[in-house]
Amino acid sequence: MAEEKQNFEDSLRKLEQLVSEMESGQLPLDEMMRRFEEGQKLAASCTRELDAIRRRIEKVVSAPNAPPQIEPLEIL
Q1: Strand, helix or coil for residue 15
Q2: Residue 18 class from Cβ within 10 Å (0-12 exposed, 13-18 middle, 19+ buried)?
Q3: Are 18 and 39 in contact (CB under 8 A)?
Q4: Rounded to whole angstroms, how far apart are CA atoms 69 and 37?
Q5: Which residues lie closer than 8 Å to 59 by C-beta, 6 or more apart?
Q6: What is the Cα–Cα distance from 58 to 42, expressed in whole angstroms?
Q7: What phi, psi does 27 have (nearest 5°)?
Q8: Which pLDDT value is given to residue 2?
Q9: Structure pTM?
Q10: Contact between residue 72 and residue 38 where contact means Cβ atoms under 8 Å apart
Q11: DSSP labels for 17-67?
């Protein structure tokens, strides 16, 4: 089954939840590892999305007198 795409805020919320669960100390080792792996994927996804936004901001800031170019948001 294909994984459903989450938006940045949902991914960040899920990542925070995973960290909280892992910090609780109540998880068996195999569950801790599963959450760690899921967290790594979410963190990478959030980083890619933030990088895409940063690039868009840099384009706008680097050409303040140019008419704005609207580009679709890259969601990887």
Answers
A1: helix
A2: buried
A3: yes
A4: 38
A5: 69, 71
A6: 24
A7: -95, 140
A8: 44
A9: 0.70
A10: no
A11: HHHHHHHTT-S-HHHHHHHHHHHHHHHHHHHHHHHHHHHHHHHHHH-TTSP
pLDDT per position as a tens digit, 16-61: 999 999 999 999 999 999 999 999 999 999 999 999 999 988 888 8
Q: Name residue, tokens 């140019």.
A: 66
Token reading at 74? 């890259």
According to the model, what pLDDT value does residue 63 have? 74
Taking the C-alpha atoms of residue 11 and residue 65, their distance in angstroms, rounded to an integer, is 35
Rounded to a whole number of angstroms, the distance between the first and last alpha carbons of the chain is 18
CA dist 52 and 63 (Å) reads 17
Give the integer Cα–Cα distance in Å for 14 and 19.
Answer: 9
